[in-house]
Design brief:
By secondary structure, the chain is an alpha+beta fold. 39% of the residues lie in helices and 24% in strands. It has a 4-stranded antiparallel sheet. It has a 3-stranded antiparallel sheet with strand order 8-7-9. Strands 5-6 form a two-stranded antiparallel ribbon. Strand 3 and strand 4 form a beta hairpin. It is globular, with a radius of gyration of 21 Å.
């Protein structure tokens, strides 16, 4: 994840995303607004609109200093080295948008259900994304009482289980991201 480049005000249209994400966002570099980026979701490149030319130029210079992306493609370059390509704002924005979508999904999951990994193997969970859940909406019950009751049931039957709701959000997002 890139610490210096961030996206804010993200608008994502899943229904219109065909080959790429259909989205619009404001681009910040070193916590300063430098422009906007968008994509129509039909497979084309991102549209990039600088609003602060000086800041945008600094961001592009910074991107030029980033190491190349090494792929896991099995075909090497002509020189026998692994296939690499230059980092770009489009690639960074795609990664940031994917992270945002994962975090949004994780928050919704943890808000609406008690999520847990029965065997406690978080490494396997990060690869498969498989977990169990109990819904946290039941007439006549508060969310806190449901969490308490379901946690007790889960831990009695599966003492090695890991309750994802009890982990820091960043950790759960990281685990879900590994399964994506």
């Amino acid at each position: 994840m890139n610490e210096r480049i961030t996206l804010k005000g993200i608008k994502h249209a899943a229904f219109a995303s065909e080959e790429t994400h259909c989205f619009q966002a404001t681009v910040y570099f070193d916590n300063k607004k430098v422009g906007t980026v968008s994509n129509e979701g039909r497979g084309g490149c991102d549209y990039e609109y600088p609003t602060d030319n000086n800041g945008w130029d600094k961001m592009e210079s910074y991107i030029d200093t980033l190491p190349p992306i090494m792929t896991d493609y099995r075909l090497p370059n002509a020189d026998g080295e692994p296939f690499t390509y230059k980092e770009s704002l489009e690639g960074i924005c795609c990664d940031l948008l994917n992270d945002w979508l994962i975090e949004k999904d994780v928050k919704r999951t943890l808000k609406n259900s008690l999520a847990f990994v029965i065997d406690g193997d978080l490494e396997a969970f990060a690869k498969t994304g498989e977990f169990c859940r109990f819904p946290l909406k039941k007439k006549g019950w508060t969310r806190d009482k449901l969490v308490e009751g379901y946690t007790k049931i889960v831990m009695e039957k599966h003492p090695e289980a890991v309750i994802l709701n009890n982990l820091p959000l960043a950790k759960v997002v990281q685990l879900f991201g590994g399964a994506a």
